[in-house]
Amino acid sequence: MKWSRLPLGPIQTNCYVLSEKDGTCLIIDPGDEGIKLNNWLKEKKLTPIAILLTHAHFDHIGAVDFIRDSFKIPVYLHKRESKWLNDPSLNGSQNFMMIQPMRVKAADQLIEKEELLTIGAFQFQVLETPGHSPGSVSFYFENDKLVLSGDALFQGSIGRTDLAGGDGKQLIKSIHDKLLTLPEDTLVLSGHGPETIIEDEMNSNPFLNGF
């Protein structure tokens, strides 16, 4: 499996495209610039088969409808945020002056629990990692030694918890219980900024020291 990072939108949210040899791919958090993303996929001759959302904040969902409609593919989101896509007060778009309030159509598949999911040739574990938002999840690809952590864990930092449903203690617990327990060489693909590895965050992330 290959992965690509495309920073999109006004705050450069990382959209990830995971692809297999047959050209099928998963799109994680298509935050904005749907035309740009669509053109990139066509240029790379990739065929999306699903959109996965780590959570439903506006900067992670802005291109969802465009890409979903372009390729006729399902969107996966945790059930705790099932109403957020169409609610600007919950997805945060009404508070961001650079964009219009955002309303996205409902998810096609709701994630209800931690489980092993298979979509096409892709198999991965859903990890519930709330704290940044109530329905935040991470996607762990054990065979490829990588986890997509959304806005839970960053290189040298963690997600903010001052938005709707945020909980700082819960976020720290999620990181320690679900992410730092992964193999230390696991690659972390975050919602913003560069990639990191679990070992580095265990040893040097200042927000996690002392726990």
Automatic annotation (TrEMBL):
Question: Domain named Metallo-beta-lactamase: which ranges?
Answer: 12-192
Q: Which Gene3D superfamilies match?
A: Ribonuclease Z/Hydroxyacylglutathione hydrolase-like
Q: Is Transport set as a keyword in this record?
A: no
Q: Which GO terms describe its molecular function?
A: hydrolase activity; metal ion binding
Would you say which domain of life the source belongs to? Bacteria
Q: Entry's Pfam families? A: Lactamase_B
Keyword line: Hydrolase, Metal-binding, Zinc
Q: What cofactor requirement does the entry state?
A: Zn(2+)
Q: What is this protein called?
A: Metallo-beta-lactamase domain-containing protein
Q: Which organism is it from?
A: Pseudoneobacillus rhizosphaerae
